[in-house]
Each structure stands twice: as C-alpha cells, then as structure tokens.
Design brief:
about 325 residues; V-type ATP synthase subunit C fold; about 70% helix
Length: about 325
C-alpha cells in the first residue's frame, strides 16, 4: 500500500489530468462537426499543445506509476484480462495469430500468454485467472463450443472481481464489482431469454451477486422476456427493465451511466485509490463517447440520436 503522502500526490496528479478531459460543450461541438479533421481540432484544443493522445494504456501507466502496489486497482483490468484469455484460447484452437484480438491495458503478459496456455503451465498465470484458463481450455477442446466457453470465462471474471474487491478493495471498488456484475447478468439473462437457452447454459452464463440473486434471475430468464422484465422490476431494477424493453442500446447506456455516477462519488476524496480508479473510468467513458460519435458520423446517423447515445461525463 502507498503512504498517505503518496496517495495525496497521486490524487493531485489526477486532479490536474482532469482539466484535459472533454466537457459536455466539447461533445456538443464534436456532434455538430462534419469531418474528422474538425473533430481532431476540437480535441486538440482541449488537450493543449503537445499533449499526448488520450489512451487507456497511458492512463493506466500514470495511475500505476503512483500506485504500483495497490491491488484493488488491478480489478479495473479484469474484464480486459479475461477477454484476452478467451482471444488467446480461440486463436490457438483456430490456428490464428491472437495479437490483433487483444485489448489493452491488461494485467497479463500477452507475449507469453499463448505459450503458457499451450504448455498448460497455468501456474505461471496470475492467481485470479489461473483456474479459469484451465477450465475454459478444457471446455473448448472437448466441446468446441465457443459461446459456452465465453460464458464460463465471463462469469468467472465477474466472480473474480467480486472476490478480489472484497479482499483488497474499498467500498467503492466493492460497489463497482457488484454493479458491473449486475449489468452483465441482466444483459446475459435477457439474451438467453430471447434465444431460449436451456437451463444448463443460463446457469453457466449468469454469475449472481448480493444485488441480484442468481437462482431467481436464472428462473426468470427461463420464463421468457416478460417474466424476466417483471422480475427485474420487482427486484428494484424497474428503470433498467424499461430501458431494456425499449432497446438494448439504451440499457447499455444506463449501465455505463450508473458506473459513472459511482465514479463521481469518489472524485472529491482527498486520499486513497478511489480517485485514481474513478479517473480511469472517466477516461474509458470519454473514449467510448468518441467512438460512438465517430461510428455514428460514418453511418450518417442524425445529431439527436448521437446526443441520446452519449454517456454521462465525469467533469
């Protein structure tokens, strides 16, 4: 753990970096642009002369430079790590090069990941992903069912986040892990309901948490979308259920905004790892907004629709 002084230094550095994040007015300008060059100029004016392009890798390097031994911050990368595990395993079985499928930043050594998996040297992997790597590899090679393997790994990711948040994390990180799991479970249960997946698949795909009971969610998913949405409403997720019924895209925005609302609660804390985690989430959200704008502009989507899809900002 870091000393109080170093935590203060870390928070001060994050406060300074916040000045370069996009504001709502910047997003409005970006939405109204007609070309990529216009958007680049607006972003450059916010970043300042000579500023580096924002990337999650650079943000991660910054916060880890101030908090190299803070275990709870690593939880932020678990979703990337488990994605990379899936990418490596599928690429190995298909005989393809995996590096184009990896996402960064990650807590895994991507250069050695495939050799380690091929040799079944799971002990060389981080503890939080070790058993999942073995189970997913065995499942894939036995069944060649990529969808089931994805579900196994995704559920294991959520469990690892909750477990390690309880072990290492602050109340902020515990809530982050729970909320992330709830959003993933609702989305998964809804998809399983639409696709009429069998009980065995849903049980593998749904993780469960103290916020949303796994067994009840599985049973609701089996009952069809109307039963599932009714269950969610009775469980206190009526808004999420209503948005999901309208559009999965609106539900995705609700999930992202809920995470951002949580991040904003940590913003003004003077010490601790929470402001560092919150800044990472803020940068992640900004980059997502920029991708949405770029994709929508290329597709010729109208400005009002783009505005509706914008995620809540941190600043």
């Amino acid at each position: 753990m870091m000393s109080t002084t170093r935590y203060a230094d870390a928070v001060a550095a994050v406060r300074a970096m916040e000045n370069f994040l996009l504001r709502r007015s910047d997003l409005e300008q970006l939405i109204n642009t007609e070309s990529e060059s216009e958007r680049s100029n607006i972003i450059a004016s916010r970043r300042g002369t000579g500023a580096e392009e924002l990337s999650l890798e650079s943000v991660w390097e910054l916060i880890r430079g101030y908090a190299p031994d803070c275990d709870e911050l690593r939880i932020l990368l678990y979703r990337n790590d488990f994605h990379n595990l899936k990418a490596a395993l599928k690429s190995m079985i298909a005989g393809r090069e995996p590096h184009g499928c990896y996402v960064r930043p990650t807590g895994l050594d991507l250069d050695t990941l495939c050799p380690v998996l091929a040799a079944k040297e799971y002990e060389k992997l981080p503890q939080y992903i070790r058993s999942t790597a073995e189970e997913t590899y065995e499942l894939l090679t036995r069944t060649l069912d990529g969808q089931l393997a994805d579900s196994l790994a995704d559920t294991a990711c959520m469990r690892a986040m909750q477990r390690d948040a309880d072990r290492y994390g602050s109340s902020f990180m515990k809530r982050f892990a729970q909320l992330t799991t709830v959003c993933a479970d609702i989305k998964t249960a809804y998809r399983c309901s639409i696709m009429k997946k069998p009980l065995s698949f849903i049980e593998t795909a749904v993780c469960g948490s103290s916020e949303l009971d796994r067994d009840q969610l599985v049973r609701a998913s089996l009952g069809g979308t109307a039963v599932l949405l009714g269950f969610l409403e009775s469980a206190g997720y009526g808004q999420a259920a209503g948005l999901l019924a309208e559009s999965p895209a609106k539900f995705e925005k609700w999930c992202d905004d809920a995470i951002m609302e949580l991040a904003c609660t940590a913003r003004m804390q003077p010490f601790g790892a929470e402001p560092l985690a919150a800044y990472y989430i803020a940068a992640e959200t900004e980059l997502k907004n920029l991708r949405i704008i770029s994709v929508c502009k290329e597709a010729g989507i109208d400005r009002d629709t783009i505005t509706e899809r914008m995620r809540t900002l941190y600043v």
